[in-house]
Design a protein that fits this description.
The protein is α/β, with parallel strands linked by helices. The chain has 2 domains: about 190 residues, no CATH class; about 90 residues, Rossmann fold (3-Layer(aba) Sandwich), CATH 3.40.50.720. The chain contains 12 helices and 14 strands. The protein has a 6-stranded parallel sheet with strand order 8-7-6-9-10-11. Strands 2-3-1-4-5 form a 5-stranded mixed sheet, with helices on both faces. Strands 13-12-14 form a 3-stranded antiparallel sheet. α7 crosses α11 and α7 packs across α12. The longest helix has 18 residues. The two termini are about 35 Å apart.
């Protein structure tokens, strides 16, 4: 049976309590201290399922006892050591592939090192996430009768792998792209890459509020990027939020996948039944398709992989979940 492993970390103390019941009686400051000092990873066995092709898969959830802020406090070396240790646990469990979720900001430029130090391939889920965002925007635009060819796209968090893939892919569909990222050093290179794909107007903006003000479609790829006032957006602007932090009438949740079978991850995600984050689903999908290769690594993921992962998802029955624009 093909086996995947997923490495995640609690996003807040509330989710940590669902991972480790012993922390439920602790105040927040003690939970944080406890998480920072325990050396072990807790493992959940994920109920097995099968793809629409009939391929049986099973998996393991490996939880790293660190919050996002604590990972920044500890620094890259300490976090990398914990990721590698978790990878060795996945190897011992017989996993064929390891999915990294929630480590983009810490290990974004270190994932090749992680892959080299493990005997199993790893993936960060960026490709399937980017594809799900593109599919969501395309379907919502069709549902709302939005002419993409006349639309202005703003990408907030443009230089991370998801933002870069979305910007490059949608450059073939929109009239103008506005790029914003708090890390500006790579924006110029991304602009040049986009212009090689499609001859449209590409603007680099240094202010997040200005970047989204005149956009018809907005993609937010990270909760760590500066926020903006939604009241200043165009009235009919569509915001595809991958971070899950935004809300509003025109907000659509990006980066979600509906699985072809019932699945219990063992933790509460706040998502509908059998719907998971695409960053998690990518490792499951690659296991279902027996594609045991390191897939979404590095910042400059080949654009051709978007079509490839979309085809694999279709074959295995993994569906991009967009309740605002369901598949007809």
């Amino acid at each position: 049976m093909n086996t995947f492993a997923l490495l995640i970390h609690p996003k807040n103390t509330q989710q940590a309590r669902s991972f480790w019941p012993v922390t439920r009686i602790m105040p927040d400051f003690l939970v944080k201290s406890w998480l920072k000092n325990i050396p072990a990873f807790k493992i959940y066995k994920i109920k097995s399922g099968h793809s629409s092709q009939g391929q049986d898969i099973k998996g393991y959830l490996i939880a790293c006892p660190l919050l996002s802020g604590q990972m920044l406090e500890l620094g890259e070396d300490a976090v990398m050591d914990k990721i590698i240790a978790a990878g060795h646990i996945a190897e011992k469990l017989g996993a064929n592939i390891l999915g990294l979720d929630g480590y983009n900001s810490i290990a974004a430029d270190k994932d090749y090192i992680i892959a080299k130090r493990l005997r199993i391939p790893v993936t960060r889920g960026s490709t399937l996430t980017a594809w799900s965002v593109f599919e969501a925007i395309y379907r919502v635009a069709r549902t709302k009768n939005i002419n993409l060819k006349k639309s202005v796209l703003a990408v907030v968090g443009a230089t991370n792998p998801i933002g870069s893939l979305c910007a490059r892919k949608l450059s073939e569909y929109v009239s103008k792209i506005i790029l914003f990222d708090s890390q500006r050093d790579k924006l110029g290179q991304l602009k040049e890459t986009i212009l090689q794909i499609s001859p449209l107007e590409v603007v680099i903006e240094e202010d997040a509020r200005k970047a989204v003000k005149d956009a018809d479609i907005i993609i937010i790829t990270s909760a760590t990027e500066p926020s903006f006032d939604t009241n200043e957006l165009k009235m009919q602007a569509v915001v595809c939020d991958v971070s899950g932090a935004g809300s509003g009438v025109n907000f659509i949740r990006g980066g979600l996948i509906k699985l072809p079978y019932p699945l219990n991850l063992g933790v509460k995600t706040g998502l509908p039944k059998n719907v998971v984050y695409a960053s998690i689903a990518e490792a499951m999908l690659l296991a279902a398709a027996a594609r045991f290769v390191s897939y979404s690594l590095g910042d400059n993921i080949n654009l051709d992989k978007l079509e490839e992962i979309a085809n694999i998802a279709t074959q295995c029955g993994f569906e991009v979940w967009v309740p605002e624009a369901p598949v007809l």
